[in-house]
Specification:
By secondary structure, the protein is mainly α. It contains twelve helices and no strands.
Length: 329
């Protein structure tokens, strides 16, 4: 057996073993790589416009980003926290309005009676489950931040280290594959951040025009959840519709129409225009991958399903379909 085959088999076996024993680790590392691509891209953009080196550009971009986050939390943190608390306090009234609407429509009551609420509740001790989830989230956050920072500072070291796990004749192709994966991630990030901004602004303006309470916090929620395509906007609409029901059924219907319109504009106008460098993912494929990763790996898998699919689709198209299948004589 040649060294080429042995190196591929060893690397594949290690990846499958880690994916089987600790899938959260691989997902956290991938999220860190995604953060590194974002920081490196922002640093390169800064270096280009200020006429400095790449590392200086990365430092300036990171400092500006951190300053902006701290300033935002200092200026708007208290106001957002107050609105979040108001949103939480408004839920009982909103749920009461929704319950009254359901009671007035028998078919909705019969539909809800078919749902087994027990299956929707987590098993085990509530305190233990909450502690485990919090500890796991904090651990993942630490891994993501450190992988992102170190990956952004010296990406070449890790690329060379990854390619050296393969036989010398395979290393140039492996480097090209990693390069294409980086292109896919940069394009996907660009599309997502533009989409998040547009969705947040349009949602805030629309809810303000409808005189919906807590429009700012609902707009922030909509912008953040746009990071998870297709499924995220649906989740973002739930609290807005609940608050709309407290104002009346007509208001809730207008909110549903608003979210549907914004999602349509984002999916068919905004994202395709800014996704030129990334793989254009078919909606049905995106939803299928999200459901699969959500079932297998939980919330983190659901959030990272789309960028992973973008990388696999771009790399598979170029190095498997074009370079291998299409070369059949």
């Amino acid at each position: 057996m040649s060294r080429r085959i042995v190196s591929v088999l060893v690397l594949t076996s290690v990846a499958i073993l880690v994916l089987w024993l600790a899938p959260d680790v691989l997902l956290a590392v991938f999220a860190g790589v995604l953060l590194a691509v974002f920081l490196r891209g922002g640093g390169d953009w800064t270096a280009k416009h200020v006429g400095a080196g790449r590392n200086i550009g990365l430092t300036v971009f990171s400092v500006v980003l951190l300053t902006a986050i701290v300033a935002f939390l200092a200026i708007a943190g208290a106001a957002l926290a107050d609105q979040v608390q108001k949103l939480i306090d408004s839920f009982p009234e909103a749920l009461q309005g929704a319950r009254g609407y359901v009671d007035e429509h028998g078919w909705l009551r019969r539909l809800l009676d078919l749902v087994d609420a027990g299956k929707l509740l987590p098993s085990g001790s509530g305190a233990t489950t909450a502690f485990s989830a919090t500890f796991g989230a904090l651990g993942n956050a630490v891994v993501i931040v450190f992988v992102g920072l170190y990956g952004a500072i010296s990406p070449g070291i890790y690329v060379r280290g990854a390619t050296r796990l393969l036989a010398p004749t395979l290393r140039p192709k492996a480097a090209k594959i990693l390069s294409e994966a980086g292109v896919a991630l940069r394009g996907w990030l660009k599309a997502q951040f533009v989409s998040m901004t547009v969705v947040g602004v349009l949602t805030g303006l629309g809810l303000w025009a409808l005189d919906v309470p807590l429009a700012l916090v609902l707009a922030v929620i909509a912008a953040i959840l746009t990071f998870v395509p297709n499924i995220g906007p649906v989740l973002a609409a739930v609290p807005a519709v609940l608050l709309g029901l407290s104002e009346g059924v007509s208001t809730a219907l207008w909110i549903v129409a608003l979210y549907v319109a914004i999602q349509t504009v984002e999916s068919y106008v905004i994202t395709p225009r800014v996704q030129e460098e990334a793989v254009s993912l078919p909606p049905a494929l995106t939803i299928s991958v999200q459901l699969l990763f959500g079932v297998l790996f939980g919330v983190l898998g659901l959030a990272l399903a789309t960028p992973i699919a973008a990388v696999l689709l771009r790399v598979g198209e170029k190095f498997y379909v074009r370079s291998y299948l299409d070369q059949e004589s």
